[in-house]
Design a protein that fits this description.
By secondary structure, the chain is mainly α. The protein has one domain (1-17, 26-80). The protein has helices at 6-11, 27-39, 44-56, 64-77, 94-101. The chain is globular and about 50 Å long.
Length: 102
């Protein structure tokens, strides 16, 4: 799970206002995120909020066990992307991708 103590989180609940977003994310990356969230009984939104808040503080949001689980999920879903490709991904249309495979 991402670092932090659940006991503290439960005792210090904060009220927030959430909004629906229209974010587009690489398909296999979403699969890994959703599987990781499900594994920890979290919503995808809660997982993403935790990752982003840790990142904003300059902290790694995952312990070693979580990083290993993520490696396993990436392999299972065929996600070969890593941080070195960040900001270099270009979206293809769904029909275009199928034609390029043929």
């Amino acid at each position: 799970m991402y670092l932090g103590t659940l006991v503290r989180m439960e005792s210090e609940k904060l009220l927030v206002e959430r909004v629906q977003t229209g974010v587009r994310i690489e398909k296999r990356l979403v699969k890994v995120l959703k599987a990781f969230a499900e594994y920890h009984d979290l919503t995808l939104g809660d997982l993403l909020e935790g990752i982003v808040l840790h990142g904003f503080d300059g902290k790694c949001p995952f312990n070693q066990a979580s990083l290993e689980r993520i490696r396993e999920l990436k392999k299972f879903y065929g996600l070969e992307l890593d941080s070195t490709v960040s900001h270099r991904l270009k979206e293809v249309r769904s029909g275009q991708r199928k034609r390029n495979k043929a």
